Amino acid sequence: MSEVSAESVLVAWLSSAFPSARVVTETPANLADVVPLIRVTRFGGVDEAVWTFDNPTMDFDCYAAGRIAARDLAYQVRRSLRRDLPGQIVAGAFVLSCRTLSGPAWTPYDNTTSDLRRFTYSAELRLQEMP
Predict the structure, then answer these.
(1) Could you give the CA distance from residue 44 to residue 63 in angstroms, rounded to a whole number?
(2) What radius of gyration do the chain's Cα atoms show?
(3) Which candidate, 11, 6, 92, 77, places its Cα nearest to that of 44?
(4) pLDDT at 92
(5) Cis ω on the peptide bond leading into residue 104 (within 30° of 0)?
(6) For the chain, which residues make up each domain, given as ranges?
(7) Number of neighbouring beta carbons within 10 Å of residue 113
(8) Which CATH number, 3.30.420.40, 3.10.290.10, 1.20.1250.20, 3.30.2000.30, labels domain 6-129?
């Protein structure tokens, strides 16, 4: 996909689907003050057919105050991406599919000053750039 980034597609989708959460591509310095927060990061994937299709592999770090809230947010993100996102046109891309690579899991996060916790979810999407 020459002009549409997978991160842009997913930030747009998740911002709409989770209006009470902040959705970003970089963790802010004041993270503990702005939770719940979802960080979207592409860590790989391939494109094909002269950039018509993109198969990004993505991480979703879900931060919240407390382990249960962080876990619930990660499961809600997975549900939204797997059930609601396929078939949608978002930020210039048609989302064909979403496949879980690694289900929501607690991920250590060095934080000794608050109850900030992180769960991480990984998925592979299949996107088609819209003309």
Answers:
(1) 22
(2) 15
(3) 6
(4) 92
(5) no
(6) 6-129
(7) 6
(8) 3.30.2000.30
User: CA-CA distance, 57 to 41, in Å (whole number)?
Assistant: 9
**What is the β-pairing status of strands 22-24 and 37-48?**
parallel
Reading the chain (131 residues) residue by residue, the pLDDT tens digits are: 456 799 999 999 999 999 999 999 999 999 999 999 999 999 988 766 666 789 999 999 999 999 999 999 999 999 999 999 999 999 999 999 999 999 999 998 877 678 899 999 999 999 998 88
Pairing mode of beta strands 53-65, 89-90: unpaired
Q: Looking up tokens 């607690």, which residue turns up?
A: 106
Distances from the Cα of 9 to the Cα of 33, 103, 106, angstroms: 25, 21, 25
**130's tokens:** 């819209």
Six-digit token string for 49? 């057919």
Nearest to 76 by CA among 18, 130, 36: 18
Per DSSP, the residues of 84-116 read ISTT-EETTEEEEEEEEEEEEEE-----SSS-E
Residue 44: its H or E element: strand 37-48
